[in-house]
UniProtKB/TrEMBL annotation:
Residues 1-24 form the signal peptide. This is Bulb-type lectin domain-containing protein. InterPro entries: Bulb-type_lectin_dom (IPR001480), Bulb-type_lectin_dom_sf (IPR036426), Pan_app (IPR003609). Residues 33-157 form the Bulb-type lectin domain. Transmembrane segments: none annotated. Keywords: Disulfide bond, Glycoprotein, Signal.
Length: 437
């Protein structure tokens, strides 16, 4: 009896010391360094690795964006390039207690414990049990299983693949299961820098991929036929094998790389682009302008004033400033709004001629109504302003107008980089910067 207890203690000691040692995976015969057994905890300075070392689970602190609360997320990173592949959708507000966060496998439940607040329960089994195991699979799926005493799986209690964020990994599902009520969809961030849920969602229904913006359908892939989607380039689809489940209970979609690579990742950006492994995007809902149906774009209602000569309006990104703003500008200070919301709001107001984000972290909206007040100027410290102009008219163009996407993307990279640099200081263990987009 006492020997038993002693062995158990030794085992736990061995187990917990090997668990956090990243070199342990290279030592033959060292087992279970990739799992949390009952009573084990993962703290904010340790990580859990998949057996093949390809994925890593850890707490990650996002620095407060401009003076607001710092948030921590339980995250999964791909180790080869430190790209983020999964995160809890809800952030945990942190003041100065980052060190005291733990993930625990305890009495049949998997929970995140904070210093004094109530724990956040990710999963709990119906009855208390000591036969549970949490581990990170080679696919990047973090699972919490009930196991038999011989170690084999009795049932899956919880898995991270059921809670996708903005990344789709090989084997991760999109779709619905009517029987369990499970619903898998991607939700893009409000801005590319901060994990706040944004305006765009990607779902699979009616045998096709659908991108919505605040519920309005912007883009459809067309029905999947013989591993091809009508509105996705065959060059892109030829890289993948699509797996569809379609029965009374479940309608779902997932992909695998034809060459067997597990390094693939589909990324859904804050502007509604779906990026895969090819430089050519899978979908570009940001290009959908309500007029054309090219590439799967959908048409939707718009005010009469925007139907100019049947060709409509376009948006150009310019650098510059407005003079005498007071009587010709207005704003919406709602920090849940992103730039796509500003565009839609400006579009819907026939007096609106230009818009941009209100706050430095790219939330909120600012609008202008008198374009004569705009002074284009290429000084880089000036704001970028989105200007609505008629498609066929050249009179409304400014000499500095640039390709919207090029300018926007390079600017986003700069901003992201600045945030990444800040993050390095909050994660002293990092030797490489973590990529958040
Ligand atoms: C985190 O866990 C590791 C391994 O169990 C331990 O060595 C370390 O002291 C813990 N850190 C904190 C802040 O509790
Ligand atoms: C963005 O900035 C505004 C104003 O400073 C702030 O209220 C808001 O919480 C910030 N949003 C995020 C996600 O940090
Ligand atoms: C957020 O985290 C940073 C870096 O750890 C820290 O300097 C700052 O005080 C924190 N801010 C808040 C509001 O807790
Ligand atoms: C789980 O293990 C702990 C410590 O060994 C024990 O006190 C507890 O009763 C066990 N719970 C169950 C449900 O078996
Ligand atoms: C483990 O135990 C369960 C239940 O007793 C049994 O169904 C299963 O076949 C066993 N698995 C192995 C690998 O022995
Ligand atoms: C799936 O969940 C999202 C978010 O909770 C919801 O908006 C959507 O309507 C759901 N879709 C289905 C088909 O249940
Ligand atoms: C396999 O395909 C993926 C994308 O589908 C690509 O990123 C990767 O480079 C390919 N690997 C090899 C060895 O061809
Ligand atoms: C937004 O508009 C209101 C009302 O005009 C004004 O008081 C406020 O200062 C503006 N906010 C910003 C951040 O410019
Ligand atoms: C727009 O601004 C110009 C230049 O400041 C001014 O002359 C004109 O009256 C303004 N138009 C309106 C409708 O306010
Ligand atoms: C991004 O940063 C580079 C190097 O600092 C700079 O040359 C470039 O102009 C910046 N781009 C934007 C859009 O600010």
């Amino acid at each position: 009896m006492s020997t038993n207890v002693h062995l158990k203690f030794l085992f736990l000691l061995f187990f917990s010391s090997s668990l956090w040692d990243s070199h342990a995976q290279h030592v033959p015969g060292v087992a279970a360094h990739n799992s949390l057994k009952p009573g084990d905890t993962l703290n904010s300075s340790s990580s859990l690795n998949s057996p093949n070392g390809r994925f890593m689970l850890r707490f990650y602190l996002w620095p407060a964006a401009f003076g607001t609360t710092n948030y921590t997320y339980l995250t999964i990173f791909r180790t080869s390039d430190l790209h983020l592949v999964w995160y809890t959708r809800q952030g945990i507000p942190i003041t100065n207690e980052f060190d005291l966060l733990t993930l625990e496998n305890n009495a049949g439940s998997l929970k995140i414990r904070r210093h004094c607040d109530n724990p956040i329960e990710l999963s709990s089994s119906p009855q208390p049990t000591n036969n549970t195991l949490a581990f990170l699979l080679d696919s990047g799926n973090f699972v919490f299983n009930e196991v038999y005493s011989n170690g084999s799986t009795k049932r899956v209690l919880w898995k991270s693949f059921d809670y996708p964020g903005k990344v789709l990994l090989p084997g991760m599902k999109l779709g619905v299961n009517q029987k369990t009520g499970q619903n898998w969809s991607l939700i893009a961030w409000l801005t590319d820098d901060y994990p706040v849920p944004g305006a765009f969602t990607l779902e699979y229904s009616g045998h096709q991929l659908i991108i919505r913006r605040r519920g309005v359908v912007y883009w459809k892939s067309g029905v999947l036929r013989g591993n091809e989607f009508e509105n996705i380039s065959p060059k892109v689809t030829s890289m993948y094998h699509f797996n569809v489940v379609s029965n009374g209970n479940e309608e779902s979609f997932s992909f695998m790389c034809k060459n067997g690579s597990q390094e693939s990742r589909w990324l859904f950006t804050s502007t509604g682009k779906l990026l895969g492994d090819d430089p050519q995007p899978i979908a570009q809902a940001d290009k959908c302008d309500r007029y054309s149906i090219d590439g799967g774009c959908q048409r939707w209602n718009q005010p009469q004033c925007r139907h100019h000569h049947q060709h409509g309006y376009t948006v150009e990104l310019n650098r510059g400033y407005f003079v005498s703003e007071d009587d010709s500008s207005y704003n919406i200070s709602d920090t849940n709004l992103g730039i796509s919301d500003c565009k839609v709001s400006c579009w819907g107001n026939c007096n609106c001629v230009a818009y941009t984000s209100l706050f430095a972290n790219r939330s909120g909206c600012k609008f202008w109504t008198n374009i004569s007040n705009f002074v284009p100027d290429d000084l880089t410290y000036l704001d970028l302003v989105y200007i609505l102009s008629r498609k066929l008219s050249h009179s409304g163009k400014f000499p500095l107008s640039v390709s919207m996407n090029n300018r926007q993307d390079s600017n986003l990279n700069n901003i992201s980089w600045a945030l990444v640099m800040r993050s390095i200081f909050t994660c002293t263990e990092q030797t490489q910067s973590l990529k958040m987009i």
